[in-house]
Hints:
This protein is an alpha/beta fold. It has helices at about 40-50, 55-70, 80-90, 100-115, 120-155, 185-190, 210-220, 230-235, 265-270, 305, 355-360, and strands at about 1-5, 5, 10-15, 20-25, 35-40, 165-170, 195-200, 225, 245, 250, 255-260, 275-280, 285, 310-315, 315-320, 335, 345, 350.
Amino acid sequence: MLVGDKSYQTLWLHPEDEQVISVIDQRFLPFEFRVEDLHTPAEVFMAIREMHVRGAPLIGVTAAAGMYLALFQPPDEKEITAWLEEQALYLKSARPTAVNLSMAVDRQLRKILLAPTVEEMRAASKEDLQAFIAEEIDNCRKIGEYGLPLIEEISRHKKGNPVNILTHCNAGWLACIDFGTATAPIYMAHDAGIPVHVWVSETRPRNQGFRLTAWELKQHGVPYTLVTDNACGHILQKGMADMVITGTDRTTLNGDVANKIGTYLKAIAAKANGVPFYVAVPSTSIDWTMDDGAAIPIEERSENEVRFADGFANGKAQAVRLAPLHSPVFNPAFDVTPGRLLTGFITEHGICKAERDDLLRLFPGKVPYIKEK
Length: 373
Ligand code: MRU
């Protein structure tokens, strides 16, 4: 996607140094555009944990890149398998909720361990990393293609008025490699000349909506309006949103969806007011081994994310305190929305209901998890 007049992806292999992976460091957006070079699995771990990169698909690809970088620093060729298994466990522990992380690391590990020498491991790892990047871009493009007719259909009834779409957090290209998941149909509709307008919800505590979604929609020229998280119920009740589209960090077989904290409340309000609520779900965010959203591990993040807010003042980015000193804080980063509140999933294989049988209709190769009696 465009940043100014230059086309970017969120992560790329450094063209001159094969031991470097470059990423957009999202901690500084929208105030400053910075690129960070990652050299080691430890740097990749920190980039994921401290959210230099974030969003489920990008977390997965960055972790896969961490496995690739691990191949440039094995302690001893004889111990390489143990070293790689250790690095895989380490990278997987960076954040708990997005299933993309463990899936991507396991995928890399499987490919790498098939190769007999370190040289061949590096080649196999690089080849698979590039293939994975291409697949994730393709997933987003297809989600855009399948989601576009939903927006077109609403637009037909709006007599030239914009289709109002509410989204939460950032499930845009910054959360993926390109296009985004929830934003892909929106970008496609905008590019096709369909008038669209996006309600961008704040997304406290880290403000991914204000800071990232607003920034990337602006870069692409898509009309949007910022709203506080608390305004979303009102917007849905007043018929000011025609549909909701969000992303997901982990979708379970029964159609439950873990996504950024606050998604659940929006889904309840949408259901209560008859507003369609779609979740854009690439297959890399589906946990085929988990039957029920109740089992999804929910990340709890630092208390200071709630006590403070990052902003821009006097020419620099800085944190300001919002609450009495040392206030106790509970900071769950995700919640689980039951599939029954959702209208459907937009996947790279098409649209389905948020339920097991319809999901497996689109992905027939996946073996459903059988519960132990
Ligand atoms: O904590 P974050 O910023 O990583 O959370 C991101 C989200 O909740 C996104 O909606 C989700 O990862 C889907 S991204 C396509």
